[in-house]
Structure formats: C-alpha cells, structure tokens
Design a protein that fits this description.
The complex is a heterodimer of chains A (196) and B (427).
Chain A: H1 5-21, E1 24-32, E2 41-44, E3 59-64, E4 67-69, E5 72-76, E6 80-85, E7 113-117, E8 122-127, E9 135-141, E10 146-148, E11 154-158, E12 163-171, E13 174-184, E14 187-189, E15 192-195
Parallel strand pairs in A: 1-14, 1-15, 3-6, 5-9
Antiparallel strand pairs in A: 1-11, 2-10, 2-12, 3-4, 6-7, 8-9, 12-13
Chain B: H1 2-7, H2 11-18, H3 33-39, E1 47-49, E2 52-53, H4 55-62, H5 71-74, E3 80-81, E4 99-100, E5 106-117, E6 127-143, E7 147-158, E8 161-165, E9 168-175, E10 178-185, H6 202-205, E11 218-228, E12 233-244, E13 254-267, E14 288-300, E15 309-322, E16 325-338, E17 344-358, E18 361-371, E19 381-393, E20 396-405, H7 409-416, E21 418-426
Classes of the chains: A mainly beta (196), B mainly beta (427).
Chain lengths: 196, 427
C-alpha cells in the first residue's frame, strides 16, 4: 500500500510533534544542610530566540493560618498573581526586592484578593507587615518549564520538548543557583545537589 | 562568679519560702512569649512595642486570649484534651470537657536599668545600676473554649530590698460581651494601661492621703465585655467590679469601679477584617479615636492605724492613633474625705505623644501635671519626659528617658531630675 507524499510528511510531522511534547524531566534534588529538600525550583533557563507570551490566567497565592501558601511559587515572566487573604485577621503583602518594584499591596478583608503582575525576572521575597514571621517567594522565570521539589526532593517537569537545555535549580535559603546542561529525550532523569 | 554563688546560695530558697507571704507588690506585665510559641508568631503581632498592645493585641485580649475567627485554625500546637467534646452531651454525669496548653505556657521577662540623678549630695551615689531590676515568670493561656488564665511570679529589687508578688487571674470567657474575672488585677483608666517607658503615668501613681493609688494590683471580681462598632470598625468595652481596698484583706470595705470606652474607626475591638481595606498597613497603625470614662469609689484605712478615708475617683481618657503617631491623655480627679478634716480634691493629668520613627524606634514625649490639693496655694507639679524606645529585637527593648521637673524646679530637681536607661527582654 502506498501513501501520497503529502500524507507521509504530515504523519511524520505529527509523530515528531507528539514526541516533542511528551518529554519529561524528573529526578531528585538533595538539599544538603536542610531538614528536608522541599521548595527547590528546578527550571529551564532562557532559550536563545524563544520568548513566551505572558499567561492570561492568573495564579493564586494564599495567606492562610498565618502562612503563605504555597511557600514558593514559580511563574512565567508576565504572570499576574492574585494574593488571597483567607484568614479572619488582617494581612499585608509587600516585597523588599527592586526587581518587582518593591510593591506593597496594603491590606484587605478576608476572602478578597489583590493582584500584582510580575513583569521582570525576579526572585521576589514576600513579607507581611502585620506578621513579620510570614515569608513566601515568587520566582519569575523565562520559560514555562519548571517544578517545585517536594519534601523528599522529587520533582517533575512535564511536557518538555526533547532538546538540549540549561537547567537551573534555585532554593530560597541558598544563595547560589546550581546550573547543569541536560539533554532531554523522552522521559529523562537528572538529579541535583545544593548545599546550604 | 563562684564566690558570688556561695555568698548568695541561700537567696533562692529564702525567696521561694517567703513568696507565699508577700502579695501584690509587683504589677503584672503583658508581654507573653508563651503566646508567640503557641501561634508561632512574632511579638509585634500583638504589641506596638511591649508591653503596649497594638489594635490586634487588644482584639486578641478581648477575645479571651484567642484569635478572632477561629482560634483552632491559628494554633500551631495542639492542646492536651482533658475530655472528649462528646462528654458535653453526658453532663452532668461527667466533668465538662476542656483542654490545657500542649506545651509549657511559661515565659520569662527580665528587666534591668541604669539611673543617673543630676543633683545629688556628694555622699550619695549619683548613678546606680540595677541589674537585675526584676524577673517575672509569666504564665498565660486558655483552658478549653470558655476559660483563660494569666499570672506571674515576680521578683523585683527596689532600693536594695527584694519584693515579690504572684498575682494571677482566671477568666470565664462566656462570650465577648460577657466575661468574668476572678483574681488579681490592676484597675487603671490610662489607655493601654501600661507605660512604654520606665516612669509610670502620674494618674496611676497619684496617692490619696492614706496612700491609696490605682497602680496597685488588688484581688477582686470583674465583669467585662467588648464588641465591634458598625461596619466591624472600632467598638465598645466595659469593665466593672469590686476589689479589695488598699492593704489587701485588712480592710473591711471594698473598692468598686467601672470603666467604659468607645472607639471610632480602626480595627474592631474584637478584630475581624470587615471594612479594614487599606493601602498601607503595619502592626503599629490603627487610625482611630477612643474616648473613655472611669469612676472608682472606696474606703481606705479602715483599721486602727489610720482614719477612714472615703475616696471617689473620676477620670476621662483620650487615645488617638493616626498613621505613625499616637496622642493619648488622661485627666483624673480624686476626692478624699476624712472625718473632721476638710475634703481634699486632687487633679492629675498627662498628655503623651508617640511617633514611630522606624518600626523599631519610637520617639515619645509626656507632659504631666499633678495637683495634690486643688484648693491650696501650691502650684501643680509639672514634669516633661522626653524618651526613645528602641526595639533591638521584637523581644528586646532598650528605653532611654529624661525626667525634667518644670514647676518648682529648684526644689524638686535634686530628687527627680534624672536619666534612666532600661533594658527589657522576654523569652
């Protein structure tokens, strides 16, 4: 049985495309010197010649029981984050970091939210002027491929096209990021170690 | 150090032996790191600068030492159950269930100070270090959903002597509008009740002819309640009760008192977030005005050693907060009646301004006037007290104040003009 050339090309392109979006980078992050390995962000560094439009969907960060949830929130550059107050007490959200204009959103009632659009790459520390012990982080990244490790250190970046990438690992309590080249082909494993 | 230990090895046992014999000489504090541990939150959640409460601290207090909107959501430690909730269905055939704090409700408050008087004879030391000045073991918490407690064991050095006290109180927190206190407490109309600086408010220290003053902690029974104002902002609070007069149970007669305050604007007296949206926020801000009235009546010296003195005290208060500034003032009159002598009317008032220069640095100036007898020809004694309070950490405070008598300056300066540096820390 013979197929027309155009059909063959289309089938090959579809197969290639399918393979490209099915990739996954997963593995373990070991955070040495910490009680657990949670909150490390594994992400794909900027890719030359590629930009990604700002997402239209907002992302949520909660303030609940005097804690920022999630504690670490990675987002694509341009993402708007809605800060929700779920407590029956007043909160505040501000950042001392210049990369996010040192924004201060004030205070608002329970169940309501205020928003901020993170336009620039940034590791923004979030604080509350009412509860000094509260601390959260928004990590603004150049690509949509990132993941946060769990307490065991496990992470998984799904839907990552095959290719050669620069992978970085960031942690809120460790100043120096880990950088490592990784070639992704289908489901690929890569482990990282950070030292406090 | 070893020699010091040997020399003072009997001090602690002696103190422990005599503590039960001495009551009410040390006033209660409000800084309670036990709550910081319970909720895993900073001192500044409740304190403008300890011991002065901020708006949330007052709301926490007015909720019976509980977080508004569901205390169990904010606790970071689980209490120890003293009975399943289901036992409420079994009562009276079982003890009503309750709980106790899951970890120790203890905290320590240590105080030391350096004082320098400007005008002293050569034979008298002009300056003195008082380290330690006082140590307080504080305990506070909740017992189930209806009771709370607050107490301390305090040891204080005063003029070379050691004084001790161990006031405590148990509260029934039936609902925010109705609470019953049984125990020892200070009745004091001044906003916040506690001075941020070493010198206490003159109205609290105004003495009657038999030595009665508000500042003393006394045992008694108090009813109090609080509620939010319209829109969840501001609100009301009342306190009324009966307590032993000066000298504890030596007197047959009791003091009675009542106080009412009303707050306009700011955080609700019971907390909450309704109507609280703002562009700026900080633990020391609470744009509001609170006014209050206070009345107390009692009899002092009803024993063999002094003539009976009937007292009536009336006071009015103002407490205005705006952004970084606070202005508060209290005026109090005391009418003293002793049979066979003319009545004595006293008038004391103060006005105090505070400004948050940085969240850790507060400037303060207080002007006070005390006229012990308004009918005599003696001018009121007036004093100016500029001060700064620095929060070295949220639980470490360094205060520097200068006390400058103004009226009758030459006569008073020898005793009263001084600089005091005070260090407080709690843990």
């Amino acid at each position: 049985m013979r197929f027309p050339f155009s059909v063959t090309c289309a089938a090959l392109l579809l197969a290639a495309s399918s393979a490209a979006t099915a990739g996954e980078l997963k593995g373990m992050v070991k955070v040495i010197g910490m009680k657990h390995s949670a909150d490390a962000v594994v992400y794909i560094e900027a890719i030359a010649g590629r930009t990604f439009p700002a997402p239209t969907a907002h992302v949520k960060m909660d303030q609940k029981n005097l804690v920022f949830l999630p504690h670490v929130l990675p987002v694509l550059q341009g993402t708007t984050v809605d800060f929700v107050n779920s407590d029956a007490v007043l909160h505040n959200v501000f950042s001392p970091d210049k990369c996010c204009e040192q924004f201060n959103l004030g205070s608002w009632p329970q169940g309501q939210s205020r928003s901020y659009a993170f336009k620039s790459r940034c590791a923004a520390t979030l604080l509350c002027k009412v509860h000094p012990e509260m601390e959260g982080f928004v990590l603004v990244l150049p690509t949509p491929w990132f993941a946060v490790s769990d307490r065991t250190g496990a992470y998984s970046i799904k839907d990552l096209p095959d290719g050669a990438y620069t992978v970085k690992v960031w942690h809120p309590k460790i100043k120096k990021e880990v950088t490592q080249p990784v070639t992704v082909a289908g489901v690929t494993s890569a482990d990282f170690a950070l030292k406090k | 150090m070893e020699a010091w230990r040997k020399q003072h090895r009997l001090v602690l046992p002696v103190l422990l032996l005599f503590v039960p014999l001495l009551i009410g000489v040390v006033n209660s504090a409000r800084a309670i790191p036990a709550f910081s541990r319970k909720y895993q939150t900073s001192c500044t959640t409740c304190h403008y600068a300890f011991p002065q409460l901020n708006a949330f601290g007052k709301a926490f207090r007015n909720n019976g030492y509980r977080y508004p909107g569901g205390d169990e959501n904010f606790r970071k430690e689980e209490p120890v159950s003293l009975g399943s909730e289901a036992y409420k269905q079994v009562w009276p055939d079982a003890i009503w269930p309750s709980d106790i704090p899951g970890t120790s409700p203890l905290a320590v408050h240590a105080i030391g100070q350096y004082e320098m008087k400007f005008h002293q004879p050569d034979s008298v030391a002009r300056s003195v270090f008082e380290f330690p000045g006082a140590v307080e073991i504080l305990y506070a918490g909740t017992l189930g959903d209806k009771f709370s407690f607050f107490g301390e064991v305090a040891v204080e050095t005063e003029g070379g002597a050691v004084e001790t006290g161990f006031p405590f109180r148990l509260e029934l927190n039936q609902r925010p509008g109705f609470n019953v206190v049984l125990g020892s407490f200070v009745v004091d109309p001044t906003p916040g009740h506690r001075s941020l600086i070493p010198t206490e408010f003159n109205v609290s220290m105004l003495e009657s002819r038999n030595g009665w003053m508000l500042h003393e902690e006394k045992p008694g029974l108090e009813l109090w309640g609080a509620g939010n104002g319209s829109g969840g902002r501001g609100g009301w609070k009342y306190q009324a009760g009966v307590m032993e007069g000066q000298g504890g149970d030596a007197g047959r007669d009791k003091d009675v008192f009542a106080q009412v305050t009303y707050k306009v604007g700011g955080l609700g007296e019971l907390g909450g977030t309704e109507g609280q949206a703002s562009q700026t926020s900080a633990f020391y801000r609470d744009n509001s005005v609170t006014v209050g009235g206070f009345v107390s009546s009692g009899r002092v010296g009803a024993d063999l050693f002094a003539d009976k003195e009937d007292l009536t005290v009336v006071a009015g208060t103002l407490d205005a907060w705006y952004e970084r500034a606070i202005l508060n003032a209290t005026a109090m009159s005391m009418n003293s009646r002793i049979g066979g002598t003319p009545d004595r009317k006293s008038l004391a008032w103060y006005a105090q301004g505070q400004y948050v220069i940085y969240p850790w640095l507060i400037g303060l100036a207080r002007y006070e006037s005390t006229d012990e007898d308004t009918d005599d020809a003696v001018d009121p004694q007036t004093t100016l007290i500029p001060a700064v309070a620095g929060m070295v950490r949220a639980n470490v405070k360094l205060t520097l104040q200068y006390v400058r008598p103004i009226s009758d300056y030459d006569a008073r300066k020898a005793d009263e003009e001084r600089v005091v540096a005070k260090l407080d820390f709690s843990l």
